[in-house]
Amino acid sequence: MSSPSPKDVNPTDLGVLDAIRQRWSPYRFEDRWVEDEKVVRCLEAARWTASSYNDQPWSWIVARRQDTEPFQTMLSCLLEANQAWASQSGVLLISVIRTTFRKNQKPNRVALHDLGQAAAHLALQATQIGLQVHQMAGLNLSRVRQIYEIPDSHQPQTAIAIGYPDRSAPVTEVDRELQQRETRARERMPLRDQVFSSKWGNTSSILK
Q: Where do the Nitroreductase domain residues begin and end (predicted)?
């Protein structure tokens, strides 16, 4: 059984952008590099994300699969459960936030929010140009800080694998297990459990 085609990945209840409907998080990637131009386009999409005071508190550390030593170094920063499948991706990123505003050095409590927006822009741009990304919390933060000499003013946060999803039929038992994770039912909470009015837990009338 092959992995799902892009058109039937996210059966949304309402009309949304194609890139949102087609975005998914593969565990299997084709054995190929990702063109630099496509990686840069994804990073450019992230660059134009809205942020508090236009502070743009996010940064990215990039490792391309064709650059064997840097790629293996970044791979070693992932938790073991992520290393095997992520090793097949074309590019790895590590996201980093600056914890204070540039203009006054006061704490930026929404830096993570802004990073999340930037990562979403990156993921949707990747989908638009035939790639997919898989975002990971499983990262050895202290190792990342040490290896990449990240200053105290910044904090590493997540890892992102980028590549061409492999939709071929699995051959090995490991591939079959990964495919099962990819093809299991995709579910989201209904809007009525997330959108409130008047008081907490009171479903907004716009959904009724």
A: 20-164
pLDDT in tens, 37-94: 999 999 999 999 999 999 999 999 999 999 999 999 999 999 999 999 999 999 999 9
Q: Are strands 132-136 and 91-98 parallel, antiparallel or unpaired?
A: unpaired
**17-167 CATH choice from 3.40.109.10, 3.40.50.300, 3.40.1440.10, 3.40.462.10:** 3.40.109.10
The first and second tokens of residue 84, run together, are: 């095997």
Q: Give, in degrees to the nearest 5, the angle at Cα 194 between 27 and 138.
A: 30
Residue 150 burial class via C-beta count within 10 angstroms: exposed 0-12, middle 13-18, buried 19 and up: middle
Q: pTM for the full model?
A: 0.90
